[in-house]
Amino acid sequence: MAVVATYSDSQPRRASVQPLVDLVAAGMSDVNELILSKAGSNVDLIPEIAKHLISSGGKRLRPMLTLALADMFGYQGDGHVTLAASVEFMHTATLLHDDVVDESDMRRGKLAARKLWGNQASVLVGDYLLGQAFKMMVDVGSLEALHILSSASAVIAEGEVLQLGAAKNIATTETEYLRVIEAKTAALFAAAAEVGPVIAGQSNAMKKAARTYGMELGYAFQLVDDALDYGGSSADLGKEVGDDFREGKITLPVVLAVARGTDADRKFWSRCLEGESIEDGDLEQAIDLMKKYDALSETVERARTYGANAMKALEALPAGAHNDALGDAVAFCIARVS
């Protein structure tokens, strides 16, 4: 098993989510059962579309964070299971909406729901799942958890609008792009982690440490995905390599390559991403430019920095198997592109 010793903590971390999976296996079994139950509806198309995406895989890292960070404090009850299912429904709804906005054809190696049932059905089923998520949050009876997750939902929607503004705009800055991924990705990781100690009745210091861990992990996770789209494989991504490029997405490797490139390079990026005029060999040229200007390697370094921040946040949380497993998850996230 791979070992990643990138971080400054005294214990090298295994690049694996398996310890985390094993620790929360019982809780995730309950989460999966609840997800399938709450995805049901008398309107046949709703469970059909929801289960298409829910059953298509994915590591379900976000709900595992909720379970692990509640279990870490010895939480007794089933509120963390309900909140974890809510988190996964929020994430699934976001994927359905994203694929419509991005005009994506594939999701996790399968045809996107929008390609099978159309954009309207995908958006409306995403809305249904969000509604179910909020109902489950209310069922838990924690106003603080409801506030955290509902706030994250609003931030994610803001992130979608921010991304629309950055789409096909090669003038997007690194600061602007990081705002997008904080809203679209890191905010839900942060909320998923924070509600664990909330449901367990922990101190503000513990909640803050958990939130910081989730936020920094979310940044790292997204930046690794950005690098993988140009330097990974379809197996790593669950979609085709270069999809971000073909969809005109402005991600950090693009931002860095554009900023460091020549006028001729910028004309290339403008034609491909702003003009949507992609020709044979353009993806290979894009990758070559990213390598020339160290855009991919620096994106990974940024991810490592966020990963190190996540590890630092864990130092404030109780030591033990759950802490170790959460650290291993950070190492796994980075190792996907190592």
Commentary on this structure:
- The protein has helices spanning 18-23, 25-38, 45-54, 61-71, 79-102, 113-117, 119-140, 143-166, 174-199, 204-231, 234-237, 243-246, 252-260, 263-274, 282-292, 295-314, 321-335, and strands at 3-4, 13-14, 106-107, 110-111.
- It has 17 helices and four strands.
- Helix 8 runs antiparallel to helix 9 (174-199).
- A two-stranded antiparallel sheet has the order 1-2.
- It is mainly alpha-helical and 338 residues long.
- Strand 3 (106-107) and strand 4 (110-111) form a beta hairpin.
- Helices cover 72% and strands 2% of the residues.
Topology:
Layout: E1 3-4, E2 13-14, H1 18-23, H2 25-38, H3 45-54, H4 61-71, H5 79-102, E3 106-107, E4 110-111, H6 113-117, H7 119-140, H8 143-166, H9 174-199, H10 204-231, H11 234-237, H12 243-246, H13 252-260, H14 263-274, H15 282-292, H16 295-314, H17 321-335
Antiparallel strand pairs: 1-2, 3-4
Helix pairs in contact: 2-5, 3-7, 4-5, 4-9, 5-7, 5-8, 5-9, 8-9, 9-10, 10-16, 13-16, 16-17
Features:
two-stranded antiparallel sheet, disordered N terminus, 338 residues, mainly alpha, Farnesyl Diphosphate Synthase, 4 strands, single chain
Concise structural overview:
By secondary structure, the protein is an all-alpha fold. It is built from 17 helices and 4 strands. The longest helix has 28 residues, at 204-231.
